[in-house]
């Protein structure tokens, strides 16, 4: 990793839960469970680093990418390059162990890869895809301005949190804690309970001051 850069995979952590991001990338805490182990094994199978040419299509695997503008870097699972287009069309593909999500967590990671490709290859990336192991199919992703704006915002917020070196409180959406490998370390219920107690105490003292 270059100095002051953020791993592209870390952006998915931040989008999912800023507290999870901070525990991993600020406090350097990690704990593997079934889901993380399964995902790691999937990427080990995918990350062969082999290059394949089929007609006008070139397939590059385990491609290292970086953006000096956004200070991010990482490794792509697959980059498809279509030479039948002029200029060449670059199509990033990310592999995930789960299934498609309503939220943009995985799309943000893919979009960050697209930003790197654009900077490195002086091109424009308008489309990509995420291949989900659980459903065994690709989900097309439109790299539009809305997704770009969300991704750039997440990048900026992740950099800010790293610079502050603080771990935020758990997010309100408790459903995300299910299956999280860091739930025992994070202890979201304890922190939410403590937060609620402090909130009630503040309300009590505010009301007392008004009386």
Describe this structure as you would to a colleague.
The protein has seven helices and seven strands. Residues 203-211 have low confidence and may be disordered. α4 crosses α5 (145-164). Strands 1, 2, 3, 4, 5, 6 and 7 form a seven-stranded mixed beta sheet that branches. The chain has 211 residues and is α/β, with parallel strands linked by helices. The chain has two domains: 6-168, Lambda Exonuclease, Chain A; 170-211, no CATH class. β4 (72-82) and β5 (89-96) form a beta hairpin. The relative contact order is 0.17. It has helices spanning 8-16, 18-25, 34-46, 105-121, 145-164, 183-186, 188-210, and strands at residues 6-7, 51-54, 57-67, 72-82, 89-96, 127-132, 137-142.
Q: How far is it from the N-terminal to the C-terminal residue, by CA?
A: 57 Å
Radius of gyration: 20 Å
Q: Say how many strands there are.
A: 7
Described by the principal axes of the CA atoms, the overall outline is globular
Estimated share of beta-strand residues: 15-25%
Q: Which segments are poorly predicted (pLDDT under 50) over 5 or more consecutive residues?
A: 203-211
How many domains make up the 3D coordinates? Answer: 2
Order of helices and strands: EHHHEEEEHEEHHH
Helix content: 40-55%
Helical/strand content category: alpha/beta
CATH architecture term of the largest domain: Alpha-Beta Complex
CATH topology of the largest domain: Lambda Exonuclease, Chain A
Number of helices: 7
Q: Mean of residue pLDDT?
A: 82
Sheet bearing the most strands, described? 7 strands, mixed
Indicate the CATH class of the largest domain.
Alpha Beta
């Amino acid at each position: 990793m270059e100095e002051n850069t953020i791993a592209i995979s870390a952006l998915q952590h931040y989008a999912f839960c800023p507290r999870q991001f901070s525990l991993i990338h600020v406090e350097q805490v990690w704990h593997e469970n079934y889901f993380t182990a399964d995902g790691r094994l999937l990427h080990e199978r995918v990350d062969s680093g082999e290059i394949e040419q089929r007609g006008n299509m070139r397939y590059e695997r385990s491609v290292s990418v970086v953006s000096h503008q956004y200070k991010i870097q990482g490794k792509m699972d697959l980059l498809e390059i279509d030479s039948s287009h002029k200029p060449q069309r670059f199509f990033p593909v990310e592999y995930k162990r789960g299934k498609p999500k309503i939220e943009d967590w995985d799309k943000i990671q893919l979009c960050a890869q697209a930003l790197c490709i654009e900077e490195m290859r002086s091109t424009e990336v308008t489309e990509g895809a995420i291949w989900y192991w659980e459903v065994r199919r690709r989900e097309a992703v439109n790299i539009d301005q809305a997704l770009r704006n969300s991704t750039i915002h997440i990048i900026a917020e992740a950099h800010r949190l790293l610079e502050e070196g603080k771990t935020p409180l758990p997010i309100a959406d408790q459903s995300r804690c299910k299956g999280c490998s860091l739930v025992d370390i994070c202890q979201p219920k304890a922190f939410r309970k403590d937060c609620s107690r402090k909130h009630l105490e503040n309300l009590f003292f505010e009301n007392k001051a008004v009386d």
